[in-house]
Amino acid sequence: MSFRVICGPAGAGKTRQATALFREALDAGLEPLYVTPSGPDQRHFTRHLIELLGVVSGGAVLTFDGLCRRLLKSAGDSRRIIEPHEKPLLIRSAVTLLGGKLDHLREPMLKEGFVAAAVRLFSELAALGVDQAELGKGLAGWSGSRRRRQALTGDLFRLYCEYGVLLKDMDAIDIETARLAAVEIAAGVGHLSGNMLIFDGFKDFTPEQHLFLRQARQSGVDVAITLPCTPDGEVYAGQRRHLEQLGLAPGDVEWLPPADSSGGALAHLAADLFEEGAERAPCDDSITIVSGAGVRGQAEQVAAEILGLFRSGTSLDDIAVICRSSGRDLVLIAETLAEFGVPSDLPAPLPVSHTPLGRALLAILDFVATGSPAALMGYLRSGFAPYDDDVVDRFDCEARLYGTEGFEGLLSRWRSLSGHALEEVTRLREEAARGLEGLCEGLGELIPRMLSVRLAGATTLPDIDVAAAGKLVELCQDIARHGLDAAEGDSEGGRGRTGGHAGVLDLLRRSIAAAEVRTPGGMRRGCVRLLDPHRVLNQNFDTVFICGLLEKQFPRSVVEDPFFSDMERQELGAHGLPLEGHESALEEEKFLFHRTLTRARSRIYLCYPYCDKEGKPTVPSLFIDYVRELFSDKPRHVQRLITEVAFAPTAAPTPAQALRSLAVAGAAGELSASLEAAAGASLDGRLQ
After folding, report:
1. What is the mean pLDDT of residues 436-441?
2. How far lies 421's CA from each of 380, 389, 418, 457, in Å?
3. For position 647, what pLDDT does the model report?
4. Phi then psi for 427, rounded to 5 degrees?
C-alpha cells in the first residue's frame, strides 16, 4: 500500500507522472481508477490516455461523483441522487409546506437570493455530515438567549428538517450525502480491492474528498494525488493548507521543479506574479491588453484578433477564450465568433437563463406574469418569435410613443398594428391559470415551435439551443413532480401558497433561472475552446484570451452569506458547526488567474470592456495592474472605442465587416462588390 502526493507548479509535469502511474498499474494487473474534478476534465483525460496508450483495456476515468455512484451501486444502495436543479425546488417546497410556521425567514425565502443561499448552506451542512440533532444542538448553543438568533436558527432548523423529510419521501439523497455514504463504503473491506486511485486535476479538495482519501489510505488502497503547489510563494498558499489537512508523512510528498522555460515575458509572469518585491523585466509581444466598448465590443475585438492569428497560421484548436464564469458573456462570445465565421466549442455547463432559448422563454414568462414591455420586446427580438422585424420595430416605436403598458394594453396594441393576436402568450396565461401541469404541457408544445422559428433560414440549430430545449423539457417535468403541491393549496393552513397563475409562473421562472445545461462539446476539432478557469486545468494552448477582466468579475467580489457572517461562522465552529468563511476568496481568485495565464505557450491576451452598454466607464481588474507592474515597459494595448461603429475598412476581419465599414465610410457599388467577392473566397476557403 502506498500514498503518494505529487506537487509542483503549473506545467511541471504532474499529469505526466499520473498517467505513467496509470500505465504501471495496468501492467501490474490492477484496475486503476483515474479520478477527475468534472465531466469536461473526465473527457479531456480520457482522450489524453487514449492518445498516450492507444486502446485502453482496463481501468476507468471518472469524476469523483462518478466514483461515489459506483461505490453506492456496488453496495446495493438504490436511492436516487437528486440533480442540482432539484435542490432549490425542494427548498421552495419546504418553505411553502411550513407556511406560517416560519417566522424570521418566511418573506426572505421568497426571494431568489435567499433560496440560492439556503442551497449553499444546506450543501455545506450535508458535506460535513451534520444531521438534524447535531444542527439543532449547535444552533441552540450559538443562539443562547438572543431572540433574533433564536428566530433565525429556529426557522433554519425547521427548514432543514422539512427538506430532509421531502428527500426521504422521495427515497432520494443529495449528492453531498451520497459522497459521505461512499466514504463509509470505502472504509469497508473489498469494495476498492484490486484498484489504484489516481486523483488528478484537483486544485483543492472538499471535506468529503478529504474524508474519502483518508479512508482509502486506512483501508490499504494505493493512492496517488497531484496537487498544484510549491513549498513557498503567494499563489499556492491555499493549496499548501490542503497538504496539511491530508496529514501526510514527510516521505509522502514529491516536489516537482518548474518546467524549463525559454524566458521572456510569459516566463516572468508565471514566476513572479503576485510576489512581493519582484523585479521588473522588459515586456514583449507575447502579452497584449484588449479593450472594447461593452461586452459586445470586447467580443468583436477578440474575434478579430483570433481571425488574425488563424490567418497567420495558428490552429483554432490551439486557441482558448477564458471567462471567469461560463455564463452570458461566454455565450455572447460564442455567438460573436459564429458571426465572424469562427467555429467554437463550449463544453462547460451554462445557466439555462443565459442561453438564447432560455432568455427567450424567460422573457415570455416574465411578460405573462408582469406585463412588462421590456419582457415582451425581449421575446419578440429573441429570434424565436415568428414575427417580421419591421412589424416588431413599429410596435416598439408606437408602444414607447404612446406609453402603452400592461398585459392587456400591449396585446391590444399589437393586435391593432399587426392584425393578429399573440396567441402563444395568451395561451400560456390561460394554461398558467390551470396550474403547473397545464403550464408545463403548454411549454412542452411551445418550445419545439420556438426552435422551428430559429431553424428557419439556417441549416442546423446551434448545439446550445438543442441542449437548452432538452433541459427545459426535463425541468418542466421535474417541476410538475416536485412543485405541484407547493404552488397550490391553502396558505392559511400552512400547506401551500396561493396566488393563481402568478404563483405558478413565479415558481417556473425561478427554477429556470437556477438550472444549468451542458452542451455536447469537448470532442470537436477545428474549434476555438471556450472555457472558464476551472475547465482549463491540464490543457495548454498556443494563445489564451482572458475576457471580462473587471473588478467584481475577475476577481469576483465576496458576498457574505445572508444567514451567517464570517464572524458568526467562526462562532458556530465552537458549537460543532465548522462552516467555512470567505477569508480565502481572494487567494482562490489569484490562483485561478495565475493558473489560466500559465496555460499559454506563446501569447496571452488580457481583455475587458472599458465601458458598459450605456457608455459608462468600468473599472478594470486589479489583476491587469499586477501584470503591468511586473514590466518596465507597457504591454501592447489594442482598443476599439465606442465611437468606432465599425472596423476601419483596411482592418475589417471579415467580408461582412468590411462591407459594413465601407457603408459607414460612405463607399458603395463596385468597390463593395469586388471586396466581397475577393475576401469571401479567401476566408471561406481557410475556414471550410
Report:
1. 79
2. 13, 16, 8, 24
3. 82
4. -65, -40
